Amino acid sequence: MQQGSVTSGHVDTTLMRKNWHQLAIVLTLLIGAFLRFWNLTTLGLEHDEVANWLIDRSILAGKHGIYFQEAYGHEAGFHYLQTLFVALIGDNALALRLPAALLGTLLIAVSYTFVRVLYDRQVALIAALIVAVTFFPVFYSRLALRAIMLPVFSGLAGYFYWRGCKLQVASRKWGAVAGLFAGLSAYTYMASRVIPIFFIFVLIYQLIWQRRDIRFSLDVLLSYVVIAAPLYIYLALTPSADFRISEINLPLEQLRQLNVRPILENAWRILGVWGWQGDPLWRQNVAGIPIFPTWYIALLFYGGVLVMLWQRQPRDLFVLLWIATATIPSIVTIDAPSTIRMINMLPLLGVPVAVAHRLIVERLGSPRMWQFVLVLFLISMFARTTEMIFETWPQSEEVQFVWQQSLTNMADSLDEYIYLRNVTVIGWTPDTMDAPTMELALKRDDLALRFAGRDGGSVEAVAVSTEEDAAIFRPLTPQLPLHPALLPLLPSDISYDDFDWHKYRPAGNLSAENTPFDSQWQLLGNTPCEIDGNLCHFATVWQVAQVGAERQSVFVHVLDTTGEVLDQSDVQLNGRASWQVDDIVLVAHTVDITNSAEIRTGIYHPEPPYVRLQTPSGADSVQLTVITEQ
After folding, report:
1. What digits encode the pLDDT tens for the residues 428-477?
2. Helix 93-118 × helix 121-133 angle, to 10°
3. End-to-end distance of the chain based on CA atoms, in angstroms?
């Protein structure tokens, strides 16, 4: 009877520990989900997110592939998942970002499962908590970008690999499954190309130090090759598709020329990325903040790495090799340490922390006290991540610019001002990203939108509607300055925190006769010249007779008595494809009219052979009468 009581008590204790552990992992998933889903759509839309949406729309239109060359080249895997959400939910930020948030939450479970098969439940739980609350994985789980898909698939590959290895006789089917997920990871993100490098290093390690049967690892690599081969064949046959790498691989090119300094400098920067220096780019991080800004967790990470190197257990070396190879894409490219290029470390990121913590508990005793200390610092990390995600990072002016917060706020206002129907948006990329950004951000579809933007320092060409229900919106983060000649024509009626609201004020004394140019434009005239030293600021005023997508520019030439050009102004008509027939287009110029005998203007195609539009009389320019104002 007494023995039965002891056995029963032991079973009860084991069951309680198991139940507590299950509760802890569920709580970890809930905490991670909160950080990934809360206020997911409050931030504006970043250019890459909009570019993703355009690719998704092309898939829905019937364009399929394993690799898309748009937006510097994208592997197709994430896009097909994202396209499913766009089809189900619609064209909005929620549909774009939900797949990443779901994958980021799934990554916590993958990390736990992967680490548990390597070590045990306690180490796995700590590793999962690290993934759940650290800024690095949370950040990339909140963006509509494909990178977060890589650690999920690579983590599954690692799990099935190690599960097969733990069998007394490695089951070759697990090697094939591991290779399957490793191969699928090739279709997620560019940094996935370190996966075969990792497994080749594992194979070399087995040959030299373990001297074991390597057929299992060969099965992994063979399965990887079969699955990933179509992508690599496509890239080999289409070198231009992968040109983005050529833009960022300067350290690798220097290494090929036997200059190792850039690689070593990058390696040194990356060595500190976990504790004392971080990613320098605001678009990828709170600039300069290390992966573990909490000093205690950072010390545990570095201490855990040293312990694992000292122990030299196969599983420890496996983890360290995984983390080391994950840094390769950042080592061989610019802007190190780049967290997004090192994203493959995420499944095992927390392992050194967990290993160091367990050693402290074993050597110093008082496990409950040290668990309490760890929990306190993890709570501190949660609070720090919450502050950075929802306050510090979004407040950066660079972030607000890259995530086009002004355009999002404009869209919110336009959804309210239903009496406005003809709107000009002065933006940053009127020919590429402004239009799809507004389409995504707006809820209404009854607006006739025009887009304009600057070509150089200030905004020089703006198309405006003459209708009563018209307005012009100009972002202020960062501020897009208007050319001095446009200021009298576009007075600011209302100013918000992120944008100005302008109304077109028709020019009065235009000094020119109406002149058509190739049935596409009508020159209405030009405004008086405002003298600024030797310079003259004025605007030519045009009316759209025909809308076209081809690029065009307005020129002004200042000529002397012999017809030689003394000075000139060339203004590209950005956003022309969105302009409407009968719109008024204001084009600002600054020229030196000293010693001028004649001033002429016209329109031409700014690409070879630079063809000019003609008037009905066959002329390719007309003379302007410029009245000066002091």
Report:
1. 899 999 999 999 999 998 999 999 988 767 899 999 998 989 999 999 88
2. 160
3. 110
**CA pair distance 49, 148, nearest whole angstrom:** 13
Residues 6+ apart with CB under 8 A from 618: none
Q: Name the residue among 454, 461, 452, 415 with its Cα closest to residue 434.
A: 452
Rg from Cα positions in the chain:
31
Q: Determine what percent of the chain is predicted with pLDDT higher than 70.
A: 95
DSSP secondary structure string for all residues of 481-526: PBPTTTTTTS-EEEE-SSEEEE-----S---S--EEETTTEEEEEE
DSSP 3-state assignment of 356?
Answer: helix
| Helix-strand-coil split of the chain, %, nearest 5 | 55, 15, 30
8 Å CB contact between 594 and 627: no
Find residue 500's DSSP bridge partners.
474, 495
Query: Pairing between strand 470-475 and 499-502?
Result: antiparallel
Nearest to 101 by CA among 29, 191, 158: 29
Question: Is a pLDDT exceeding 80 seen at residue 490?
Answer: yes
Instruction: Report strand pairing: 529-532 vs 628-629.
Output: parallel
Please list the residues that pair with 565 across neighbouring strands: 559
Report which of residues 137 and 2 the model is more confident about. Answer: 137
Non-local CB neighbours of 2 within 8 Å, separated by 6+ positions: none
| 292 contacts 275 by C-beta, under 8 angstroms | yes
Report the distance separating Cα 580 and Cα 582, nearest Å: 6
Cα distances from 112 to residues 107, 108, 377, in angstroms, run: 8, 6, 20
How far from chain centre, in Å, is Cα 195?
22
Provide the whole-model pTM: 0.90
Count of helices and strands (H, E) across the chain = 22, 18
CA distance 119 to 542: 72
Peptide bond into 608 cis (omega under 30): no
Residue 84 identity (one-letter amino acid) = L
| Residue 542: both structure tokens together | 């045009």
520 burial (CB, 10 Å; 0-12 / 13-18 / 19+) is middle
Give the H/E segment covering residue 629.
strand 628-629
Please state whether the peptide bond connecting residue 329 to the residue before it is cis, i.e. omega within 30 degrees of 0: no
Residue 502 near residue 496, CB atoms below 8 Å = no
